[in-house]
Amino acid sequence: MRCPDPSCSAIVLQGMINKLAKHEDKEKYARFALRAYVEGSKKIKWCPAPDCTCAVEFISDVNYDVSCNCKYGFCWNCTEEAHRPVNCETVTKWILKNSAESENMNWILANSKPCPKCQRPIEKHQGCMHMTCTPPCKFEFCWLCLGSWQEHGERTGGFYACNLYESAKKEGVYDEAEARRETAKNSLERYIHYYERWASNQSSRQKAQADLQKAEKEQLAKLSDVYGIPETQLKFIIEAWSQIVECRRVLKFTYAYGYYLEDKVKSGFFEYLQGEAESALERLHQCAEKDLQVFLPYYKHDSLVHNHPSADDFGEFRVKLAGLTSVTGTYFENLVQALEAGLEDVQAAGEAATSSNATTSKKAGTKGKAAKKQRSTSSSDNSDDTWPCEQCTFLNPPSVDACTACAKSRY
Q1: Which one, of 313, 309, 195, 316, lies nearest residue 259 by Cα?
Q2: 393, 408 in Cβ contact below 8 A?
Q3: Is the dihedral of CA 162, 168, 173, 176 positive or negative?
Q4: Are 328 and 247 in contact (CB under 8 A)?
Q5: Active site residues
Q6: What is the pLDDT of residue 362?
Q7: Secondary structure (H, E, C), the chain
Q8: Please, how many CA atoms are within 13 Å of residue 90, restricted to the half-sphere of its CB?
């Protein structure tokens, strides 16, 4: 601030404000000074969470995902919700697509036809091919060929068919319009597929966040009273819920990544990694949400029921939940690293397979029987009965009962 006299160049410092201004003006000055400092800094930004008044300082140069004291995570680069491993450009396009009117127009194009007289879009969801436009138009037409219904009757196929349309379609009259409508329909169905799973994981994440808060405020204390275990030794439950919340966030954004992934080969590898991670997450979520309820005290007819499982049962549950938490984290870390690397393993695997095929073809004349025997043995070891280790996720053959990688028992 400067002196309001145009001829004076003196600066009004905070000491003068504190000495001369009223209490309300001092608070207002301090608030504006803080805002000017935050907004003038390249390393500090306001938290974008609703009703949060905190500012966050960025101290990393690698990962743009930051977390505020209010526990809201956001991307430092674009200030959208934290979206690792998906880049900011993809997230921006996805959010814009979800909020734009383009999908409404796609739906109209895929599920309606314009009235031949007034061009108003009309949807047909049941009944015969005889359509009547809404007032004031009231034009009657055929849904298939869009011709006037006065020209239709039994000779044209009746109410449920149109010979005029079929003959014109054979001549290629309707090919362009039908192709455009079919393209819009396929595009809409694909978008809905990804959006529904995006929204489902978002709602599941919000529910998991509520369950995490409930576990922190209520469940740990109850379990501590029932089993005499200090709350500090029950943190594995909080770690499980925190893992679920984070994995739901990652899984949600992978559907935005998959929607814009056009490479067919990479798409197949991506869907495999995503499916493995999602299956692990569902097992962990079910264990934390359903299996935990067995050990919590509950009320029935205004009386507390005390028939809890034994401490040994709770110990087994602890091992299971902690193991699933670790395994799920491993799956999702593999997924994140693969996406951040641009799914380069697909290309590397393809090149290795090409090289291997070339080498095999050169030696096929001398070692055909040995190769045949080796393929037979490999097929036996990797049958559909293979089982993944819950500790290290290594895929083991059905003939062993302990993991060949970490020696953990199968059962």
Answers
A1: 195
A2: no
A3: positive
A4: yes
A5: 128
A6: 47
A7: CECCCCCCCCECCHHHHHHHCCHHHHHHHHHHHHHHHHHCCCCEEECCCCCCCCEEECCCCCCCEEECCCCCEEECCCCCECCCCCCHHHHHHHHHHHHCCHHHHHHHHHHEEECCCCCCEEECCCCCCEEECCCCCCCEEECCCCCEHHHCCHHHCCCCCCHHHHHHHHCCCCHHHHHHHHHHHHHHHHHHHHHHHHHHHHHHHHHHHHHHHHHHHHHHHHHHHHHCCCHHHHHHHHHHHHHHHHHHHHHHHHHHHHHCCCCHHHHHHHHHHHHHHHHHHHHHHHHHHCHHHHHCCEEECCEEECCCCCHHHHHHHHHHHHHHHHHHHHHHHHHHHHHHCCCHHHHHHHHHHHHHHHHHHHHCCCCHHHHHHHHHHHHHHCCCCCEECCCCCCEECCCCCECCCCCCECC
A8: 18
pLDDT tens column, 52-104? 989 998 887 667 888 898 888 899 888 899 998 999 999 988 988 887 665 66
The whole-model pTM stands at 0.65
Contacts of 343 (CB under 8 A, 6+ apart): 263, 266, 269, 270
* One-letter identity of residue 77: N
Q: What mean pLDDT do residues 234-256 have?
A: 95
